[in-house]
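BUG: 3D viewer hangs when loading the predicted structure for this chain

Environment: internal workstation, default settings.
Expected: structure renders.
Actual: progress bar stalls at 90%.

Input used:
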Amino acid sequence: MNTIVRQLPAIHELQQDERFIAILESKQVSKEKLTEWLQETVADIRRDILEGNWKVDESIPIRFHDFIFHRLSKRLSLHSTYTLRRVINGTGTVLHTNLGRARLSEQAIKQVFETAHSYSNLEYNLELGKRGSRHDLIEELVKETTGAEAAMVVNNNAAAVYLVLTALAKDKEVIVSRGELVEIGGSFRVSSIMEESGANLKEVGTTNKTHYVDYERAITDETAMMMKVHTSNFKIIGFTKDVPVEELKPLAAKHDLLLYEDLGSGALYDLGKHGIGQEPTVAESLQNGADIVTFSGDKLLGGPQAGIIAGKKKWIDQLKKHQLARVLRVDKMTLAALEATLKEYVNEETVTKRLPTLRAVLLTKEEIRNKIDYFVGDLSPSWKVEIKQDVSQVGGGTMPEVELATFVLHLSHPTLKTQHIYDGLRKGAPAVVTRIIADQIAIDFRTIEEHEFTDLHLRLKEFD
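C-alpha cells produced before the viewer hung:
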C-alpha cells in the first residue's frame, strides 16, 4: 500500500491539470480555496488506501489524476448545495430531533409553497377589507380539534411556557411537583425557564411521589398558578404517585388559581387505541379541567415547529395582548404548514394515512418487511444482506418507554469496512443516516418512504 501511496501526484502537478484550470474559470471559488479542497481530497484518498478501504488492482496502471478530480467534483457539488440539506433517515426514529423531527404532509408542503410564493392575508381581513390578526388564522382549527375556547401560536413550546409564566404568574408563586421539573433537549430546564420568566417556583412532593395534600399545603396568598408538566421524555416506574389535573381542578377553583398543564409533545390523535403508549391528548387535558394547555407543533402533532397555547378565552386574550406575543410570533410559512396539518385532523379516518408522523408510527412490522423485500430486489449482489427483527423509537422526547416492532435491513460489504460505508453514506448527497449494529450497516425502513428508494439505491451503488 505504501508503494501505491507514493504514486499519488503532487499538489503543484495537479494544479497544472486542465481540469483544475477549468474549475477556476467556471466556478465561483478562489485558487486558494480550490487548492485547499484538492489537498483534502488527496489526503482522503491516501487515508482510504492505507486503511484498506480503496479497491485497486496493482497490475493495472492507476489513473490517479482522473480519480482525484472525480472526487474533487463531488466535493464541489456538495459545496454548491445548501447547508440545510435533505437527509434520508434510516435510523427508525420517527421524530428524530437532530434530523428535523416531523415531516410535513403533502398538503402542508403545497400550502407553504403557495403562501411563500405569493402575497398573503397574513394580517389582512379580506372580508372586512382592513387590518387583521395572524392569531385568527388557525385559532378556529385549534378550537375545533381540541375543544378549547381560544388559542394562539408562538415559535416553539419552550416559548409558549415562557409566555404563560411571564404574562400570568410574574412575581407570583407557581406550584410544581418535584417529579415534573424536567429538562428538555439542549439542557433547557423547566425550572430555568420559570426563573427567567420572573415566576417564583414552589416545589412540592418528592421525585417519585407527590400527593394532593402537598399542593394544598403549598398554597399561599402569593400563589397564582398550579402547573402540571407532562414528563414526555422520561418515565418513573415503581413506587410512584402523582396528582392528575382532574383532582387538582377543585382545589384550583376553590382558591381561584390558574391550572396550567404543559403537555410537551401535544397529541391530537389518541395512539393509545392502537396499543401505542399512554400519551394524553390535548382535548383530554382540557376536558379534565386544565385552564391552559401548551404543546409542540412538530412532535406527535406532525406539523412545523411551533408552540400552541389553548384554553380558556380570558387567559388566552391576556396572552395575545402581552408584549412578548409579538416577540415570539410565528411567520406566514409556519402558519401555512400548521393550518394544513390541523385540517387533516378534522377527518380522523384519513389523518393516519395523510400525516407522515402518524403513518410511520402506525406501520406494522409486516408492512416494513414488505418494504425491505421490495427494496432488496433491486440491490446489487455485491452486498451481503440480512433482515432482522428490531425495535424503532418514536423519538423527539416522546414516549420513551414505547418500542415499535420493526424489521431492519443489515448490510455488509466483502471488501469495505462498515465505518467507511457509514461515513460515506452520511457525507454524500443526499445524506443517508443509518446505524451500525454488529459491524453491519443497519437501515430501518420505518422512516424511509418508497419515493426515496431510488436515491438510496444510487447511494449504495457508489460502494460497488
